[in-house]
Amino acid sequence: MSTHLQVRGLTAGYRRSTVLHDVSAEVRPGGWLGIIGPNGSGKSTLLKAVAGVLGHRGEVLVDGRRLAGLSSRERARAVGYAPQIPQLPIGLTVTDYVLLGRTPHLGLLGREGRGDLDVVRSLLERLDLVHYADRALATLSGGERQRAVLARALAQQAGILLLDEPTTGLDVGHAQALLDLVDDLRAELGTTVVTTLHDLTLAAQYAERLLLLDEGRVAGAGPPEEVLTAQALSERYSARVAVLRTADGAPVIAPVRG
C-alpha cells in the first residue's frame, strides 16, 4: 500500500488572499513528513490543498497520477484526511462515526462486514476509546472527540494519511500513544504520513523529514536535525530556544527565558 506523494508548485488561499506561494514537497512511499511553522504560515492550508478540499494551482501527484484526475472512490482510498476542526455529524455514536472511514472499501450493497468491524474495534482499543464506543459524539470531551476523528481517518486505511495537528487537546500520554500508532501503521502497512504539528520536539522525534513554512513559503526542508536549529527557530518563530539532544540524537526544543 506504500504510496508516493509529490506536491509541485502549490499556490492556494481564500477568496482574494493567497496563503501559499509555490510550495513543493515530496514524501517517499512509507515516509513521514512533518509540516511546521509559526501561526499563520500556511500549514493547514497546505494540508487542505493536498487533501483536495481547497482549490489551488499546481499539482498533487499520487504514485505519479494527478489526484484531481481520480474518481472520488479512488481519492478516498488514496488519501485519508483528519482536519484540525472537523464538522461532526449529529446523533452518531463513536463506533458508527469511525465506521464511516470504511466507506471506500464497502461493496455494492454498502454494508460493512466482519473485517470492517474488526478494523474499527482494533482502532478503538489502540486509541483508548473502547469505553466510549456506544457514546454519542456530542457527549465526548475535546480530547476524546479528537481521538475519534483520528480513528475515523485511520479506519480509511488510505495509502496517504494527512493529519492536521493530531495531538491538539491531548495530554502527553495520549499524544505519544497516537503518534506511536501512526508510526506502527507506517511499519505494518507502509502508510505515507503527512502531519502538521505545533510541538517541535514531537515533530522531530516522529517525522523523518520536516518542511518549515514561513509566510506561505518554504523556509527549510530536510531531516529534523538540519531544520531545527536555534538560529532558524529564532528567525522564523521570533523565539528564544535551546536545541538539546536525546540519547539517540533527536532534537529537543527548550524555551529559554530572557
TrEMBL record:
SMART domains: AAA. GO terms for molecular function: ATP binding; ATP hydrolysis activity. Gene3D superfamilies: P-loop containing nucleotide triphosphate hydrolases. It holds the Pfam family ABC_tran. The keyword ATP-binding applies. SUPFAM superfamilies: P-loop containing nucleoside triphosphate hydrolases (SSF52540). Keywords: ATP-binding, Nucleotide-binding, Translocase, Transport. InterPro entries: AAA+_ATPase, ABC_transporter-like_ATP-bd, ABC_transporter-like_CS, P-loop_NTPase. Residues 5-240 form the ABC transporter domain. It comes from the Bacteria. Transmembrane segments: none annotated. This is ABC transporter ATP-binding protein. It comes from Saccharopolyspora montiporae. The lineage of its organism: Bacteria, Bacillati, Actinomycetota, Actinomycetes, Pseudonocardiales.
